[in-house]
Design a protein that fits this description.
Shape: globular
Family: Belongs to the G-protein coupled receptor 1 family.
Structural class: mainly alpha
CATH architecture: Up-down Bundle
CATH superfamily: Rhodopsin 7-helix transmembrane proteins
Pfam families: 7tm_4 (PF13853)
Number of helices: 11
Distance between the termini: 65 Å
Strand content: under 5%
Radius of gyration: 22 Å
CATH topology: Rhopdopsin 7-helix transmembrane proteins
Membrane topology: Multi-pass membrane protein
Order of helices and strands: EEEHHHEHHHEHHHHH
InterPro entries: GPCR_Rhodpsn (IPR000276), GPCR_Rhodpsn_7TM (IPR017452), Olfact_rcpt (IPR000725), Olfactory_GPCR (IPR050516)
Number of domains: 1
Helix content: over 70%
Protein name: Olfactory receptor
Largest sheet: 3 strands, mixed
CATH class: Mainly Alpha
Length: 321
């Protein structure tokens, strides 16, 4: 039964609570998936926190690339934490209610982290371009002050974009129905529930997608065009492979993130696509934050070396005492 609060008279009602349909309809499957998603969320927290701590503690990793990587891990933690805890609790509930304010807050954090990740991936692509295209000037160009300004710009752009989206979308009038066909509050599923004209909100979402989402993607594409040109100028095949390897992790992250996000947000029409969107949403909202630290760590000799040095220090510490 829709939850509503009366405003004015009995014929004028507004929704003060939404109902999430969740990931699955079958209660038995939800109970089976609960430990799976709980383990995924815990691994996301552990791996990303471990990577942040490792980068902060090891002097060999005090470079712009790992500086940006630590912020990517922080974004992934916040992104996953805005969805997973509520989704896990909803697995154990028969009716998945969420208040209007909680829904708006969840979307604000989601949009903030999502937009910030787009901008950060663009900043990381630029960093790789400078490292490969101008290796001798790299240290002079990518100074710490510039890196901090880039991160501030990333967070600021994501924050302002998310704030404008949230205010315009949740300022609409919602009179029912109040059922969201998803397992979290996402704007494409919320806007159709509005009883007022959503044109301005749709325009804001479109502009945010164009300027932040596709704008960042364009920067990434241009950076890799220049990277490819720079690599082709390298005479040695060994040096070409080495240069390409420094970009492989970032390329994998960009492909996973943009591939799934574009697949979700470019179509919402049929009931079949709604189910497909839920699966793809699990990939970009739940799995990618867990996979990113692994993508950057498994074949990265510098991170492996830093981990070995930290383990040696931990092993020798009791002997010194």
């Amino acid at each position: 039964m829709p939850s509503r609060s009366v405003s004015g008279d009995e014929n004028h009602t507004s929704v003060d609570m939404f109902v999430l349909l969740g990931l699955l309809n079958q209660t038995e499957l939800q109970l089976i998936l609960f430990p799976v998603f709980l383990g995924t969320y815990l691994m996301t927290l552990i791996w990303n926190l471990a990577l942040i701590i490792l980068i902060r503690m090891d002097s060999h990793l005090q470079t712009p690339m790992y500086f940006f990587l630590s912020f990517l891990s922080l974004i992934d933690i916040c992104y996953s934490s805005s969805i997973s805890p509520r989704m896990l609790s909803d697995f154990l509930k028969a009716e998945k209610k969420i208040s209007f304010i909680a829904c708006a807050t969840q979307y604000f954090v989601l949009a903030w982290m999502g937009m910030s990740e787009c901008c950060l991936l663009a900043a990381m692509a630029y960093d790789r371009y400078v490292a490969i295209g101008s290796p001798l000037q790299y240290s002079a160009i990518m100074v710490p002050s510039l890196c901090w300004r880039m991160v501030a710009g990333v967070c600021g752009s994501g924050f302002l974009s998310s704030l404008v989206q949230t205010v315009t979308c949740f300022n609409l009038y919602y009179c029912g129905p109040n059922v969201i066909h998803h397992f979290f509050c996402d704007m494409p599923q919320i806007l159709p529930l509005s009883c007022s004209d959503p044109f301005i909100s749709q325009l804001v979402l479109f502009l945010a997608a164009v300027f932040v989402g596709f704008g960042s993607f364009l920067v990434i594409l241009l950076s890799y065009v220049f990277i490819a040109v720079s690599i082709l100028k390298i005479a040695s095949l060994k040096e070409c492979i080495k240069a390409f390897k420094t970009c492989s992790s970032h390329l994998a992250t960009v492909t996973l993130f943009y591939g799934t996000v574009l697949s979700v947000y470019l179509h919402h029409s049929s009931q079949h696509s709604t189910k497909q969107d839920k699966v793809l949403s699990v990939v970009y909202a739940i799995l990618i934050p867990m996979l990113n630290p692994l993508i950057y760590s498994l074949r990265n000799t510098e991170i492996k070396g830093a981990l070995k040095r930290m383990m040696k220090k931990a092993a020798h510490r009791p002997q010194k005492e």
